[in-house]
Design a protein that fits this description.
Length: about 450
């Protein structure tokens, strides 16, 4: 059975995992949650400090602040300059970075096990005591604008951003994670500071680590760095509640978007609303994606690339959030072939909805997903991420063996039913390329 992760002050949990790994979880004073997965024989560890806040949580006037904070927390604290932070990890051969999502932000580092206390101290200092210096903010504003410009020069990135906006419309999840050039230029330092003070605190903090890690020592280090940062650590404080999950939000109609770019190739995406992050059918979705567009043996790859030579890149994809998700089919092709490719993608999707997949396809896809899952768990970063998502999103931790069982339990009938449901929802189309009109 999955391990429940209750939001109770002082809660403790210990459970063995596959391959001799040991998962432990503690709810510390202040509501801070610490989860570790000790992996025998490893001399490295990956640690992440998570805040359950993403771009969807930005209030009016704060748009772009979440991504801004991801950059600014590396620019200095009361105890460290930006150079001090960079040197701390370079001096031990470690790596440090951060990732902003639509519903969470993570600051993480991979180091030798002996250097884990240093990583905890530096990342904890960044999270609790960022200065958000006005001069540094203005410098970083230019860096972020260049990052957005780089992404805008990639037509496939543009297609995916436009697809989310087309499907989700005015929903906060439809906004780009990194903000837009307009919001980044407009957001003032006070708004970024307000966003930081509003969302960064002990009750919302989750610390996860995997590899050569001692749980008790990590909890002690986390407590010390938070106290040094002046965060209140009250024994009676419970963690903040997780997002409320529900039925997937579905728009009333699909949208067609054309973005003009002077490119040699057209990028096209067809799709719509997918599943929420806690939908029990997420394992069915994985199998569906593998059959339709998840590898070289998938239907899209075989029909569009191998048989017809119409595209180099063609695949299906999905993403999930608390109250909605995305499902889509992507291809890059010659502009004069885009109609044909789009029709073929839709035809394969609808065939999946109308006809059961073969036993061979089901077994091959289950094998593909099972192997990928096991191989992915060989990495401490993947295990650290798994703990963070289980805590912030699922409210339970599914072991590797249980996940494999859920994948193997998927039937051909399950796949057809889900494909039919997805195909019945409003459908959006995004094209990016050398077309007339559009943006």
């Amino acid at each position: 059975m999955p391990l429940a992760l209750p939001l109770e002050p002082g809660h403790e949990l210990t459970a063995g995992q596959d391959g001799g790994a040991l998962v432990r979880r503690s709810v510390l004073p202040g509501g801070v949650r610490v989860l570790t997965e000790s992996m025998p024989g490893l001399r490295s560890a990956t640690i992440g400090a998570w805040v359950g806040v993403g771009s969807r949580d930005e209030r009016d006037g704060h748009h772009g602040a979440t991504h801004f904070l991801e950059h600014l927390l590396f620019k200095g604290t009361a105890r460290r300059t930006a150079m001090d932070i960079a040197e701390a990890f370079d001096a031990v051969g470690g790596e440090a970075n951060a990732a902003t999502g639509k519903e969470s932000t993570c600051y993480y580092a991979r180091v030798l096990d002996a250097d884990l206390p240093m990583a905890v101290d530096v990342i904890g200092d960044m999270v609790t005591s960022a200065r958000l210096d006005p001069d540094e903010l203005e410098v970083e504003r230019g860096v972020i604008l260049e990052e957005l410009a780089m992404n805008d020069d990639d037509p496939s990135d543009v297609a995916h951003e436009q697809f989310a906006a087309a499907v989700l419309g005015d929903h906060p999840l439809g906004r780009p994670i990194g903000g837009t050039p307009g919001t980044i230029r407009a957001v003032p330092r006070d708004a970024v500071w307000e966003h930081y003070r509003e969302h960064y605190g002990p009750a919302g903090l989750v610390v996860t680590a995997a590899g050569g890690v001692d749980h008790d020592a990590l909890c002690a280090s986390v407590t010390t760095v938070l106290q040094d940062g002046g965060w209140p650590l009250d024994d009676s404080t419970a963690p903040v509640a997780r997002r409320v999950a529900g039925s997937a939000w579905v728009p009333d109609a699909g949208t067609e978007v054309v973005v003009r770019r002077a490119t040699e190739q057209a990028n096209v995406i067809v799709g719509g609303v997918g599943l929420t992050a806690t939908d029990d059918r997420r394992y069915v979705m994985s199998v569906l994606g593998a059959v339709l567009g998840g590898g070289m043996s998938s239907r899209l790859f075989q029909e569009i690339r191998e048989r017809r030579g119409l595209a180099y890149a063609v695949y299906s994809f999905s993403s999930s959030h608390a109250d909605t998700g995305l499902f889509g089919l992507y291809a890059g092709c010659a502009p004069d072939k885009v109609d044909q490719v789009e029709q073929l993608m839709v035809a394969e999707w609808e065939r999946l909805a109308d006809e059961s997949i073969t036993t061979a396809e089901l077994e091959r896809s289950i094998g593909q997903l099972s192997g990928g899952l096991v191989l992915g768990m060989e990495d401490t970063g993947s295990r650290m991420n798994r703990l963070g998502k289980a805590e912030l999103v699922q409210g339970e931790l599914v072991s590797l063996s249980e996940a494999l069982e859920r994948i193997r339990a998927v039937t051909a009938d399950d796949v057809q039913k889900l494909a039919a449901e997805l195909a019945s929802r409003p459908r959006s189309i995004v094209r990016v390329g050398p077309f007339g009109g559009g943006a």
